[in-house]
Structure formats: structure tokens, C-alpha cells
Write a structure and sequence with these properties.
401 residues, alpha/beta, Aspartate Aminotransferase, domain 1, Aspartate Aminotransferase, domain 2, 2 domains, 7-stranded mixed sheet, 4-stranded mixed sheet, 41% helix
Length: 401
């Protein structure tokens, strides 16, 4: 059966508007479409494919588990889930792990946890959640309300209440918002959808201090920054600020759906049996994959190379920017990189993405003005260089229009 892009418009709910190409296979940092055309993958499934496509060790882990056990009801536990949870607690600040299927689900669990903990420990009035403008925490109704982008939460009726937003990195505004009724502060160490904006270390430390003063929990959304993306296993390590709760997804499964919420023992204790749950959370297939991914990515040599590859990619973007006078800034940490278009090219990030596809390179955007790159953490240097060559051609096309 021949499958064409037009079938999407016939059978799919139109929440997306994909391009005409349909990828059918991938290996490492290269992808091929139905016509056999090759693309360098600088998108990585939006920071998901941390080990590229079809990494042999991950494929082996999935195949091995697929011959043993696929699924159990959440009445029972399983070996892969326990092994992955043990590895996550050994490698992070956390004592306890809750498994889900996506970043939005992990965040939903975190938001419910902090509210319940605060109410149990401090009373019914301690429910305020502080988030940040331009933040993104997923697409559930609670998550888009906590997120700081109005476009994602508008048009669905009454929203969950007592959620306020602060400008990112504005400590004076934050001081005016936090009080003893605040149950939690939700923060991305680097805002991804919001434009690849890093948390200022002083700001993050002050937020931590103020959370402690007001007995509020600090939640780090590391759905995009976690599992090696910034050059450390989780971004909080290099930031030097330890959260009370952390959410992780995307790269944890290297393309297989899995997510987790991590927290301390005394906080986890308020999620008693039956309070929250997930049918597929802790699925044996997903957890077997996640354990293999975590083993590979936590290697210090791999994490060191993320920083090296980051500099190679950033320098290439700066060279392209200077050649065509097109980027006002190239920023980010590790292999979470944003190139901001100059004012005369504002609104053209999506156009540049499409030119990239025509030239054989897959990229992302972070809003209308920022090109976002989140390639595999182990992308070979030759693929970085070839991808930059193709991106150069795409930029040339954009500025020539």
C-alpha cells in the first residue's frame, strides 16, 4: 500500500501540519524518506533521539525484553522498572521514582504531588504554584496552565487556579510573588520552547533559597535538558542547584516513550497507594530501553564529548551567521542550541526549517525567530560538518527570497 502525505489530511486530527516528506528509516544521525533522499538529523525528534536512530545496543535491549515480558498491570512491578529506578536514584539526588509515558504526564504527576504534599504538611491554603513566562511543561490542561505560553492554554474554558507567572531570571519580580501560600516553583534550567534561555545561576540559587524560606518545593522540568543534553546527566548538576522534584522524559528512552518523576523520600510518602497512577507507566519494554540508555549516556567520556560537539556546532552556526548576516545570537548549552534570527528576518524560522528540509537537513524552531538544534549526543563530526554545509545552503535560500 502506497502511503502519501495527503492521507494525513484524511485520517488524522489536524493538530499538526507535517511537511510533504515521510521519513521511513534512520541510522545514527541520518534519515531517509520514501524517495530514498537522505537528511542529516539536527532535530533528534525534539531532543529525544539522544543516541541517534537505531543504536545497536538499545535495539538489542528492546529485542531481548520483547522476548520476555511486554506489559503487566500496575498492580504489579517488574524487574526492568526496578532496575531503572535504582539506577536513577543512584545517579541523582532522588530517593524515589514514579514512571509515566511522556514529559507532560511526568509534570502532571509533579504538580499533583507538590499540591498534595503542601496541603498535607501545611494546610489547605498552601496551593500557589509559581511558573515562568515562556515556559513549556507539556499539553495536559494542568501543564499548559502552569506553562507560560497563553496560546497553548487559551480556548479550553476555566483553568486550574492559583497559578502565577514570573518573568524568567527576574529575581525582584519573583521575590514579590513568592509567599507562605506558595506550594511550589516550577522551572526549566534552560527554557527550550521559550527560546533556549538559560537560568542565570544567581537567579536559580536565590529561587532555591526563597523556596526554603517559604517552605515551598522546587521542581525542575528537565524533560528537554535531562539525560546528557547539556553535557551533564541532568542540568541541575552544572547549575549547582538541587531541586526537590525533577521530571525527565524525551532522551530517557532515546525514542521509546518513557518518562519519570524523581523526588525525595519524605515528599514521595504523600503519594499513597491509589492517589495517582498510570496504566503504562513502568512498562517493561520502556524501562529496559531506559536502563540501557542511562547506562550509555552516563559515561563521563560521552558527556565530555557533548561539550566538544557543542562548540563545533556553535562555531559553524556563527560562521553561517556572519556569512549571511542572519543571526543575532547563537546560544545554549551542550547540544541544546538556539540561533536567533536578526530583526529583519523575524518570523522566518519556520521558513528556514523548510529550506533546510529541501537541502537535506532536519532542524527545529523555538518560536518564530529562533532556529533550534538538538541532535544526537553522539553525532559524528562528519555529520555535524555535512549538516552545517546543508544548513548554509538553506540560509542562502532564505536570504535570497
Amino acid at each position: 500500500m502506497s502511503v502519501q502525505r495527503s492521507l494525513f489530511d484524511e485520517v488524522m486530527v489536524p493538530t499538526y501540519n507535517p511537511p510533504e516528506i515521510i521519513p521511513v528509516s534512520g541510522k545514527g544521525s541520518r534519515v531517509w524518506d520514501q524517495e530514498g533522499r537522505e537528511y542529516i538529523d539536527f532535530a533528534g525528534g525534539i531532543a529525544v533521539n539522544c543516541l541517534g536512530h537505531c543504536h545497536p545496543d538499545v535495539v538489542e535491549a528492546l529485542q531481548e525484553q520483547s522476548q520476555k515480558l511486554w506489559h503487566l498491570s500496575n498492580v504489579m512491578t517488574n524487574e526492568p522498572a526496578l532496575n531503572l529506578a535504582k539506577s536513577l536514584t543512584e545517579k541523582t539526588f532522588a530517593d524515589r521514582v514514579y514512571f509515566a509515558n511522556s514529559g507532560a504526564e511526568a509534570n502532571e504527576a509533579a504538580f499533583k504531588l507538590v499540591r498534595r504534599y503542601a496541603i498535607e504538611q501545611h494546610g489547605e491554603d498552601k496551593t500557589k504554584i509559581i511558573s515562568f513566562t515562556r515556559a513549556f511543561h507539556g499539553r495536559t490542561f494542568f501543564a499548559v496552565t502552569v506553562g507560560g505560553q497563553e496560546a497553548y492554554s487559551a480556548g479550553f474554558g476555566p483553568r486550574p487556579g492559583n497559578i502565577v507567572h514570573c518573568d524568567f531570571n527576574d529575581i525582584e519580580q519573583f521575590k514579590a510573588l513568592i509567599d507562605d501560600d506558595t506550594c511550589a516553583v516550577i522551572m526549566e534550567p534552560i527554557q527550550g520552547e521559550g527560546g533556549i534561555i538559560e537560568a542565570d545561576p544567581h537567579f536559580a540559587h536565590e529561587v532555591r533559597k526563597l523556596c526554603d524560606q517559604h517552605k515551598a518545593l522546587l521542581v525542575f522540568d528537565e524533560v528537554q535538558t535531562g539525560v546528557g543534553r547539556t553535557g551533564s546527566l541532568y542540568a541541575y548538576e552544572s547549575l549547582g542547584v538541587e531541586p526537590d522534584v525533577l521530571t525527565t522524559a524525551k532522551a530517557l528512552g532515546a525514542g521509546f516513550p518513557i518518562a519519570a518523576m524523581l523526588t525525595k523520600e519524605h515528599i514521595a510518602a504523600c503519594f499513597k497507594a491509589g492517589v495517582h497512577g498510570s496504566t503504562y507507566g513502568g512498562n517493561p519494554l520502556a524501562c529496559a530501553v531506559g536502563l540501557k540508555v542511562l547506562d550509555i549516556v552516563s559515561d563521563p567520556k560521552l558527556l565530555e564529548q557533548v561539550t566538544v560537539k557543542s562548540e563545533r556546532l556553535k562555531e559553524g552556526l556563527k560562521t553561517i551567521g556572519e556569512r549571511y548576516d542572519v543571526f543575532s545570537d547563537v546560544r545554549g548549552k551542550g547540544l541544546l542550541i538556539g540561533a536567533e534570527l536578526k530583526p529583519e528576518f523575524h518570523g522566518k524560522a519556520r521558513e528556514l526549517l523548510n529550506h533546510g528540509l529541501q537541502q537535506g537537513v532536519m532542524c527545529l524552531v523555538a518560536g518564530p525567530n529562533i532556529l533550534r538544534l538538538t541532535p544526537s549526543l553522539i553525532i559524528p563530526d562528519k555529520d555535524i560538518d555535512e549538516g552545517l554545509t546543508r544548513l548554509d545552503a538553506a540560509v542562502k535560500c532564505m536570504v535570497s527570497v
